[in-house]
Amino acid sequence: MNSGVSIMDLGLNEFRLDLLEYINQGHDIEHTPFGLHAVVAAREATPPGVVFVLKNRNNGVNIDHKNQLHPFYMVYISDEGEVVVNHLAPKDLLDRLRLLCKGVHTPDKELCRDFNKQTRDGRNMKRYSELLGEAINSIINVKQESDIDSFLRGVQGSLFADPITGLDDFELICFLVIK
């Protein structure tokens, strides 16, 4: 108790409370369209990149029941295509999102202008599609590594059963561009 670590640090309760507060303010998240995005400024703990929030369409796959947010998957990928935070660390990723977004109620017009210029007002999303592919590949790679590790440890399971094949297994819910 004297270490400064709270029981809230061990779970996702603080984020559930934030969501409940948001809903109680009258926001209707049930009817929010998919594919929404925002642009925020990078900080020291949050290098430039993209956070993708995905929903698994293949209900038979829960990647070894390790993802606390299943059927949702979040991946933070850098502009260079390196995974900053994978889908198995939702608390870390949500902490970073909170740092970037909590209390921000208006868009940064300069960042939005730069993003719109780079993407030609959303008509050229090639770079972000490539990063989305890298994010999904990271989920697949973690799954395959886990299957192989389980097999080598002699754990009976489903080696490569219900494979995740790529983009068709996921739906893009939203993404946050970090510039």
User: How much helicity do the residues have?
Assistant: 25-40%
> Which descriptor suits the 3D outline?
globular
Count of helix runs: 4
Strand adjacency order, main sheet: 1-5-2-3-4
Amino- and carboxy-terminal Cα gap: 38 Å
Question: Strand fraction band?
Answer: 15-25%
Give the biggest beta sheet. 5 strands, mixed
Structural class: alpha+beta
Radius of gyration over C-alpha positions, nearest whole angstrom: 18 Å
Number of domains: 1
Give, in order, the helices and strands: HEEEEHHHE
How do the helices and strands line up, and which of them pair or pack?
Elements: H1 13-24, E1 36-40, E2 49-56, E3 72-78, E4 83-85, H2 90-101, H3 109-118, H4 126-152, E5 170-178
Parallel strand pairs: 1-5
Antiparallel strand pairs: 2-3, 2-5, 3-4
Description:
The protein is of the alpha+beta class and 179 residues long. It has one domain (34-178). Helices cover 34% and strands 18% of the residues. It is built from 4 helices and 5 strands; from the N terminus they run αββββαααβ. The protein has a 5-stranded mixed sheet, sandwiched between helices. Strand 3 and strand 4 (83-85) form a beta hairpin.
